[in-house]
Amino acid sequence: MEELISRIVVGMSYGSVYALLAVGLVLTYKTSGVFNLAYGAQAFVSGAIYYDLRVRHDLPIPVALLVAVFIVAPLLGLVLDRGLFRYLRNATAIAKLVTSLALLVAIPQILKLWFGQNPAAGTQGIVPRGDTSYNPFGDVFVSRNDLATILVTLLVVIALTVLFRYSALGLQMRAVVESARLTELAGINADRVSTASWVLCSFLAGLAGVLLAPLFAAVSDLNYTTLVVVAISAAAVASLSSIPIALAGGLGLGVLQQILDRYLPTGSVLASNIRPALPFIALFLVLIFSPALRGRRELADPLAGVDPPPPALASTVRSAALTNATRIFGVVVGLLAAYYIFFHASGQWLDIAIRATILSVIFLSITVITGMAGQISLCQATFAGIGGCATAQLATRFGMSVLVAMLIAAALSALIGALLAVPALRLGGIFLSLATFAFALFFDNVMARFDWVGGGVVPEDAPRPTIGFINFDQSDKAFLVLCLLILLVVAVLVLAVRSGTTGRYLDALRGSETAAASIGINAARARITSFALAAAIAGVGGAMLTIYERAANYDPNFVYFQGLIWVVLVVSLGSRSVEGAIQAAAGLFVFQAVILNQVVPWLADHVQPWYHMGQPPQTLAIILLSLGAFTYAKHPEGILEFNKRKSLEAIQRLIDRRSSKGGATSAGGGTLDGSETVGLPAAAGGPAS
What we know:
- By secondary structure, the protein is mostly helical.
- The chain has helices spanning 2-32, 39-56, 61-83, 93-115, 144-166, 168-178, 180-185, 190-212, 221-237, 243-263, 269-289, 320-343, 347-372, 380-397, 402-424, 430-445, 451-454, 476-499, 501-511, 513-518, 523-549, 554-557, 560-573, 578-606, 616-627, 639-662; strands at 133-137, 140-143, 466-467, 470-471.
- It folds into three domains: 2-127 and 138-300, ABC transporter involved in vitamin B12 uptake, BtuC, CATH 1.10.3470; 350-637, no CATH class; 652-684, no CATH class.
- The protein is globular, with a radius of gyration of 27 Å.
């Protein structure tokens, strides 16, 4: 009994920190309408700064706490609000989610530029645990730090409850998130209220980050992300609305984790897999079975109906002649690039071309699930990993042809994608994204460790195929041809689906699910189809990467963090078009190559004395590409699609000017679409068409 009570008390200490994070997530959502997936990254900033001041610079605890929690954390919240989220107040839920994903990816990498790749190794002892203990339960000793953590959390929850129920500021925060435009009509400064809420939420993140620091052997961004999953579970239990329920959920998960840690048999499958997977399993189960989340949708401004609808794809409004000219130009550019790569490029650029082609296939899965179905899936890297690992297992252990194994692996990925979609059909928006996030984390931390899935400690071999007299194991150029053929087949398939019945159904569902259901569209079938197709395409891409590397390297190729980077990159550039996915893949590797060959040498000579550059090419590439995702807030169709539309508008203005000069009866006023004349409406000053 004494040991059980001790475990419960320690679990309440851990659970208090989880609860503090969960309360911060609920508070952010209630006061800004943003489900801030970057909350763990904000906590990581304060934790790492606290470590640096406390251990490396040997500052007293109060001074380090003051700087990390009361100065840096609120300042970070102020910067995020004034520089970014104030412009997202009336944006869609997907835009807010993608922006928070970009922050989740970018913030830890920015911090590593200052602290190095291991900013806070060996943090046990930042705040000595158990240096002073009490025994209020007989032989059960309670650490002073555990009691302090529990007490701080309870005080914060009580203060927030009072703030929202009895203060004018709390009511204003709740009103602003409902509709900033309506709130301003009542004379309330929505910008000021939003800034106050972000500063408060960031302060809570910093406080939780410092309280979490002594619990780790190292203050790592991955540790913080994992624990934020527990907080997300508690926030989901509270339906993203109730602060007291979020507190109870966090405490309960902390206690349950400690009890499982003590009473599960040591060395058993349950102890080695279920206990570390508890946060991910809990999040998935809460999302799927919580009655409060059934059919729940994101907060929306009642005046959002007056906003203009999203623009159509540029390819649907340009003329036939211009479309043909664009295609011819693309073919010419592709042939020139192929000529250079096959006859003049070095081995490095050949490797870049192969990897960009493979990644283009994986990115097309994001085109299907996000661009067509309008959903953000955070487990596409996981589906790619399933395809890669299954291909290696089938080819190596069962002696199967590699290409046949690739097709079977794609079918397996599609099956798992469909099974994942079935329980997730009741969810939508951010809740569906969180379910896919939980699945990705569960697969990374549990399933990939099994020998029959990921190959165990040593990755499973994956031979390259031989077709007739062509041995792809001897020539990377021949393998590039194979990759290009597969990319062409997948791209044609995606275009066919987008222009077919399934694509039109998904367009209707993305516009209005109620209206689509009224004309007989089966939303469940369409979404299961999109999930299965996206998973199959990702599985093909993962199999290609595995074959190219000759081994199923699940880590680092297919871990969840890679999936986050991929989603941010594709969505910010343009997820609704095939060329957007291809350009995103090519841009990623070319961008990294430029940084590797040009930027890094300059940094080594000029910046190295002031900044830690452990792995600068990858770090800088991730930072810059993630920050580029902030353009999504202003251009939700993607920056490439936006620029294509601007180019079309410029061409149309040129045509209109030529038509106006030539007059309505001019015989020489030909246009790019082959018509004799293009006229403007009479009200606009142009000739009648």
